[in-house]
Design a protein that fits this description.
Radius of gyration of chain A: 19 Å
Helix content of chain A: 40-55%
Distance between the termini of chain A: 30 Å
Shape of chain A: globular
Oligomer: homodimer
CATH architecture of the largest domain in chain A: 3-Layer(aba) Sandwich
Amino acid sequence: MNIGLDMMGGDFAPLEAVKGLKKFLSVNSHAVTIFCIGDETLVQPLLAEYEVLSPNIHLVHAPEVIGYNEHPTKALKEKQQSSIAIGFQLLATGKIDAFISAGNTGAMLVGAMFTIKAIEGLIRPCVSGIVPKTNGETGMILDVGLNADCKPEQLNQFAILGSLYAQYILNIPNPKIGLLNVGEEEGKGNLLAQATFPILKENPSINFIGNIEGRDLFGTKADVIVCDGFTGNIVLKMAETVYDLAETRNFHNDEYFNRFHYENYGGSPVLGVAKPVILGHGISSAKAFTNMIQLATQMVETDVCAKMAESFKAS
Amino acid sequence: MNIGLDMMGGDFAPLEAVKGLKKFLSVNSHAVTIFCIGDETLVQPLLAEYEVLSPNIHLVHAPEVIGYNEHPTKALKEKQQSSIAIGFQLLATGKIDAFISAGNTGAMLVGAMFTIKAIEGLIRPCVSGIVPKTNGETGMILDVGLNADCKPEQLNQFAILGSLYAQYILNIPNPKIGLLNVGEEEGKGNLLAQATFPILKENPSINFIGNIEGRDLFGTKADVIVCDGFTGNIVLKMAETVYDLAETRNFHNDEYFNRFHYENYGGSPVLGVAKPVILGHGISSAKAFTNMIQLATQMVETDVCAKMAESFKAS
């Protein structure tokens, strides 16, 4: 398989991307070819310095970079030679099977939705985040940012996408789906949650277990938690600070709190597009890059995006 | 001043209420009379056993109890001799100056809104929660549950209520008001947040500092965080689990994580009603009761409810 990696995305690019790639190659035994997309005058010397020399590495020159503060649609249109634009061209033409970038999130989302396109029948793609469970398992929450205002049917679609992702990527058979809400009983919540509950309850393709409250987020009630992207984004960013709180209080290297650190899960996949697209944190470290490449290979191997598309065709 | 305390509310009532009251009397030097409202056959022997014998204690017999699962409006109407119904009668007639209960939250809210009434000009009251800051200070978030769906003007009103509460109760001069959102820039967010931002920006009676993300919740950017009651409820319940997470990982007695434990701030005040009404957790311990009584005296002393009413009259 061929994975595209934007070498220019992230605050510490391209150095951390190079180091993360080196680590990935050292531990990965699969037949993976990495397309390193970036400014070759910057990337080539680093690949040489860090001895990332493998026949499975292809450097694709991208002389332009989309900055963090650029307008996504405009930048993507005008900077055709940027690493993000080239990445999506390679993905759309099938030269790579997955694309990873820690660059401008907006540009990544525009690229994912307009170059790769949403799967048929889906209202809009979403982005998911990881929830470390107290029992050692890993859950997920979606949407975490792409859809600030949602219709009930969108939350139902997130449930389907999340259920498949949990099965194929998190290896959870028959994942339990919970609706993020302010109370346990049906009928609780804002208008969106109230209208979503009966739709989830009647969806035969998911294992809906009811409402999940803020206090149950890290517990074992649900594997997949669905909510609008506004609530999900706030919850995910808050969860990420749990690691920082523990660090501040000198609770270093706790196995559980460490799992809240973004770099341990790498990046967030865009779900509901035809091919794997992974968004990295702006502060992505080498470890985050390694984990994002790992996740991309897993998404390609399991063909989870096609499974999602099939599921919407069938319904 | 006269404080009404529902002795029958909470999973461990009336025992924990009695113990909490004893502790309050042992540390409090103010002239406070406590009206203990509850079943005298249960309360009287406990007051005797724990030697809570003070001329400032008045036992008010309430033979009925509203259970946790009863319908709030129906129960309050039918059980006129319940501790909650009697508490609100005493509050409405001026016999007590504040009312505290760890009982049925719905019944407490119905009582607060229909017996005591919302202050004039306010769309609807709200409930606030405490946010422990990493720098040792204490912030607040509102609404945390009463208004699952909000209009922009409601969030503006929460900002005014929160600003006054922060000044008078949390002793924060010129409190910084933040809008809970998914990004820092104006224009970010769901439709509600987008429409609320310019209203907060133009409100001369508050010190609006802009958007606050999930990651900034425990930081020092804002003292008062406003949001709809759906988001706020999830955020508050999630914050409360931070204490449990630390306990689970054997980080006992950490000064900061302990501040996330509900009993250390006692209860949540209903804001926007004419008199102090404080809601306790169902699991309220003696310490929680002590802190709720303490908070009630502070709300009566500072006359914060009247300050809130004046502020809406003026505008």
